[in-house]
Amino acid sequence: MKIGILGGGQLGRMFIQNALNYDDEFYTLDPASDAPCHNISYFTQGNFNDYQTVLDFGKDKDVVTIEIEHVNADALAELENQGVKVVPNAKIVKTIQQKILQKEFYKANNIPSPDFEVMWDGNAKIMMPLPFVQKMNTGGYDGKGVQVIRTEEDYQHLWKEPTVLESLVDIDKELSVIVARNENGETKTFPVTEMVADPKLNLLDFNICPTQLSEDVQNQIRSITETFLATVNSPGLFAIELFLDKEGKVWVNETAPRLHNSGHQSQEGNANSQFEQMYRVVKNLPLADTDTFTYSGMLNLVGAEGFSGKVIYDGLDEVLKLPKTYVHLYGKTETKPGRKMGHINVLADSREELMDKLIKVKAMVKVRA
Ligand code: ADP
């Protein structure tokens, strides 16, 4: 099959890396000439937000998929009209890429997500009680496009564009669950991952999998994933990001309609990775077994503050001496503060051992210029 991917970043790169176990051809579209996929696929330099570019890219492919959701969804819909298989479908991409539609989807399907109101511009009266979170309708990514409004003085900082105002959750843990559905309607769920964030960069820092959760919390998550998979009406692999609040209630924060950072440790930690599962979805094959072998974790390798330029990885030789530790670099030559350059997966026999190893590895490496 000719498989076309909108986006040529690390998610596409690791998807192709795994899918080379099979026999297909991979085509990627990305605006950056040195994107991580540029030298491992048939690469087109172009803007995946541009209608005509996406149409031209997709029209001769057997299937078109995405590794980023900020793509031209109208072009995906037109590709569907022309008989190209699009995974996930244009409708769900459109729903998810607009926070307002995404929140309405949860509400309509009784999927618990924090209360919200829509703010179209700066003029309407705000009914949402303080404190709340303001989220841009489109274009948010890696924590950009999200701000907390705590007091009435903060009102002056409100973005005057279409946004969602969402009640602030008193978060105990941030969790993620990756689910998959193929065209035949078969579904599979990965074990729940806990995401530990770096407060300064607001970027995912550690993943820990599996998590220790009460039966009640596990049941809430099961109910969310079952409802999501029953109502999503599209083949795809989806990362459902969750908040567990301090009272033990689970809320859906948002969903990514694609491979996700929270699933990277599945490369070595699970019977099959999220990348294998995505391949199965794209080709409508039987879905893969997602069991965990052991405790697994992931540490993002992000560019250190204060360094921009040709990347140097300090300490990787030391990391490579460690048992059950796996380095994944994304083929990016230039580092800048906060840029995701790679990740390290770690396996361990217990959660304590896993945390110790992750902290140790984190202290060993530095991504600088
Ligand atoms: P992005 O899509 O940019 O990752 P998110 O919607 O996931 O944005 O928000 C980024 C972070 O902001 C979350 O990981 C969480 O820590 C915090 N956050 C988002 N929404 C809420 C909320 N309703 N209550 C509390 N914290 C929130």
CATH topology of the largest domain: D-amino Acid Aminotransferase, Chain A, domain 1
Q: What is the overall shape? A: globular
CATH class value of the largest domain: Alpha Beta
Seen as an oligomer or otherwise, the chain set is single chain
The biggest sheet, with number of strands, parallel, antiparallel or mixed sense and barrel status, is:
9 strands, antiparallel
Gyration radius, rounded: 20 Å
Can you tag this structure with a few keywords?
369 residues, alpha+beta, Rossmann fold, D-amino Acid Aminotransferase, Chain A, domain 1, 3 domains, 9-stranded antiparallel β-sheet, 5-stranded parallel β-sheet, 10 helices, 22 strands, binds adenosine-5'-diphosphate
Molecular structure report:
By secondary structure, this protein is an alpha+beta fold. Helix content is 25%, strand content 31%. The protein has helices at 10-19, 51-58, 73-81, 90-97, 99-108, 215-231, 266-269, 274-282, 316-320, 351-364; strands spanning 2-6, 25-30, 42-45, 63-66, 85-87, 116-119, 132-136, 146-149, 163-167, 171-181, 187-189, 193-198, 203-209, 236-245, 250-256, 295-302, 309-310, 312-314, 325-329, 334-335, 340-348, 366-368. The strands form five sheets. Strands 10, 11, 12, 13, 14, 15, 16, 19 and 21 form a nine-stranded antiparallel sheet that branches. Helix 1 (10-19) crosses helix 8 (274-282) and helix 4 (90-97) packs across helix 5. The longest helix is centred in the middle third of the chain and has 17 residues, at 215-231. The protein is globular, with a radius of gyration of 20 Å. Adenosine-5'-diphosphate is lined by residues 114, 133, 135, 140-146, 166, 168-169, 171, 174, 241, 253-254.
